[in-house]
Design goal:
- Helices cover 56% and strands 0% of the residues.
- By secondary structure, it is an all-alpha fold.
- The chain folds into 2 domains: 41 residues; 49 residues, no CATH class.
- Helix 3 runs antiparallel to helix 4.
- It is flat.
- The mean pLDDT is 84.
Length: 116
């Protein structure tokens, strides 16, 4: 007869797996010095883009393009072709920002992913 797993035992197993992963991760990194933290930060920036395409960037771009103004489309194309790079302060202020609060209750305006 097969025994059923209780939610508590599942939680314990999951916690154990996460703890093991975290210990392994800690053994792979050295964050004891400012230099090692800087190196880790640089490595992370090479695989995690700073700029990602978001729906709330696209809607105004589409609306302007419908009127023949492709300025925003071209700007987004420029930013998104170099998503890992540091860019101008102006670009950072526009495209490295949290979602405006007026979009929080609108479905589909958060983030465009590869599965979108």
């Amino acid at each position: 007869m097969e025994t059923k797993k209780t939610p508590a035992s599942n939680n314990e197993k999951l916690l154990k797996r996460w703890s093991q992963w975290l210990e392994k991760w800690h053994s792979c990194i050295d964050v004891t010095t400012a230099e090692s933290r800087q190196k880790l930060s640089e490595q992370m920036k090479q695989v995690n883009p700073k700029y990602t395409l978001r729906e709330w960037f696209l809607v105004p771009a589409y609306q302007a393009a419908e009127k023949g103004d492709y300025t925003i489309i071209k700007e987004l194309q420029e930013v998104m072709t170099k998503p890992y790079d540091e860019q101008s302060k102006e670009t950072e202020a526009k495209y490295y920002a949290k979602k405006p609060s007026q979009f929080f209750d609108i479905a589909g305006i958060s983030h465009v992913s590869c599965s979108s």
